[in-house]
Amino acid sequence: xxxxxxxxxxxxxxxxxxxxxxxxxxxxxxxxxxxxxxxxxxxxxxxxxxxxxxxxxxxxxxxxxxxxxxxxxxxxxxxxxxxxxxxxxxxxxxxxxxxxxxxxxxxxxxxxxxxxxxxxxxxxxxxxxxxxxxxxxxxxxxxxxxxxxxxxxxxxxxxxxxxxxxxxxxxxxxxxxxxxxxxxxxxxxxxxxxxxxxxxxxxxxxxxxxxxxxxxxxxxxxxxxxxxxxxxxxxxxxxxxxxxxxxxxxxxxxxxxxxxxxxxxxxxxxxxxxxxxxxxxxxxxxxxxxxxxxxxxxxxxxxxxxxxxxxxxxxxxxxxxxxxxxxxxxxxxxxxxxxxxxxxxxxxxxxxxxxxxxxxxxxxxxxxxxxxxxxxxxxxxxxxxxxxxxxxxxxxxxxxxxxxxxxxxxxxxxxxxxxxxxxxxxxxxxxx
Amino acid sequence: xxxxxxxxxxxxxxxxxxxxxxxxxxxxxxxxxxxxxxxxxxxxxxxxxxxxxxxxxxxxxxxxxxxxxxxxxxxxxxxxxxxxxxxxxxxxxxxxxxxxxxxxxxxxxxxxxxxxxxxxxxxxxxxxxxxxxxxxxxxxxxxxxxxxxxxxxxxxxxxxxxxxxxxxxxxxxxxxxxxxxxxxxxxxxxxxxxxxxxxxxxxxxxxxxxxxxxxxxxxxxxxxxxxxxxxxxxxxxxxxxxxxxxxxxxxxxxxxxxxxxxxxxxxxxxxxxxxxxxxxxxxxxxxxxxxxxxxxxxxxxxxxxxxxxxxxxxxxxxxxxxxxxxxxxxxxxxxxxxxxxxxxxxxxxxxxxxxxxxxxxxxxxxxxxxxxxxxxxxxxxxxxxxxxxxxxxxxxxx
Lengths: 432, 398
Fold this sequence. Notes:
heterodimer; A: alpha/beta; Rossmann fold; formyl-coa transferase, domain 3; 2 domains; 18 helices; 36% helix; disordered C terminus; B: alpha/beta; six-stranded parallel sheet; three-stranded antiparallel sheet
């Protein structure tokens, strides 16, 4: 098992230690970003409350097989928790809570995305941890933020898309709002938390005093559609979903090509581009149609233009249609799915995927991150840690416990390496 | 974040100087965050026209087409200062190099290769300032076969894989509204810049950060990616699950397997105890019947009623919030999320504020700058000669 001693000393976050209590997605993702940049990130779980994605009955397992230790084979966990060490400790026990405080004393950052109030119930609220380590930064990622009448409300990334306002501007006009299983506010929350943690750590270095960072995922979702709110307050008219169209440019849309669910996207951003498009699709009659000469006119007759584009794209292979449009220097592209992306030449050329060997899940290509930093490798080569895989290493290294003390903790069930509440059947299926 | 009040601790990025060469959406979103966190962000704009987003609206009544009143620009550029510099001129490039030498961070979002063409590429900037962080934001990254492919929001969104997962199976793939690819690109740039800045401050090493908006999208749907890698299965868009019309809009009743019993108690509809709906698998198989029962329950109720009924029982019920719903939300109100921002030309409006608080403090946004508002002030403080400043200002026609 590789430990952070292999991290280069000039890695961006070399020397920074993080206690990552994150569950599901947003919290764990922020910890992964920091771990890949060289921080010593310790994923803290308990046997009784392991990351719920470890234990999903319909989890995503390699080859669809849960295997002997399914909790170490969950794709949802393994994609988000690389470059960390694992400590499994019962925070509901007094002994476990005390050990966490000792770890907080030798750490720089705590990240958590429990529901509001859970940390306090563990006896590990910010005030308590701040008293133990005044320089400690704690980042709390919650649904609604730490204050306000709805602070105890719960959500998933998918439901935050709804009440955070993303679906106020997303959907097919005149239909029940569309649906996304993407949980987009979760990657948003994870990326935000990593950035804010670094800002707060900088402040702590300068002032000697840590802080409690309060991130509301619902407000973050609203922040991502901020211009819709500007429109509402400035014009007294709130925007509504317009499907795949653009509020100013026309035409814009997605058009079906030949084959199984293949589509081309297109944006025409000027009158000149419109003339070029008419040429590409061999519709000189549209180019000379005075009703369509201006963007306002094209918006008014968008349905008619869409019909022409559908007729053009329908028989074409998607690569052919994209090729023709790009050859004319227009903005167009294919709609890609996960299989396409694993074969994508741009991602390949930029070494976006990282191949990692995991002792329980095998060797796989995992997604990378949307940035590179010159002179720094952000590829850790380190898989998601086995559940409880670093218990002894961490307790002896960081708290100078003896092997006997660690064995005692294990006997009393304070630490462990098998989660309780296994909900995986012997024939768990791989799909979802 | 205001830094002047003596009784408050310094802002997180107090003392950090940022030269902002970005325009439109992704870059300005990144630097909006840096300004919110307390950095001194100097935005370089082309004289006369400025950031093209200035012309995009939405505009207040009477302000149509005014480059000082575009709402999207005003939102994305809070807390920055504006310097009008023409990078196509030697004087403009010299001044930019001068400013870069005194900055901790330079951020740019030109087409790849353009900064080099201006003579302001990473090598040149690092020569002047070895600890500098240069962050470059582009559609597909600074290299690779797609480097020079032109793209819009919908093009990147579609290529990034999210679009194939949103919407109904009997409709075309659907894009999220607004500019989610651009915002995620900007957010990624913020975090990457913070990583590189931390390295510069801890280890004295500058670096060039290369942010790809496309990769920002690919990095935002973990489940479908790992599903394909682990099982070969390709996830597709699907009909709306557990979304129901109610008396004044739509509500979401999505719950996890272990929460189903509690949902039955909250809804108090005896039919839901039927064996046909006992497990998640059965509920999916009999979704048509389930949908009819839940629809009968949701239709007479308001979205707020449904939201509270679930949440009071600890269930993650939600509702499809309109923009107006959020503007009057008691939760947002209690956290002062929308705060009035005064602007000398556009007037005073409530802007979306910061979704992040430090020790309970809401960072103050400030307002967006007028085009070139700080040209003389910034260039003067940077030590440019009066004659150089005069030449640049005259060139600007200001």
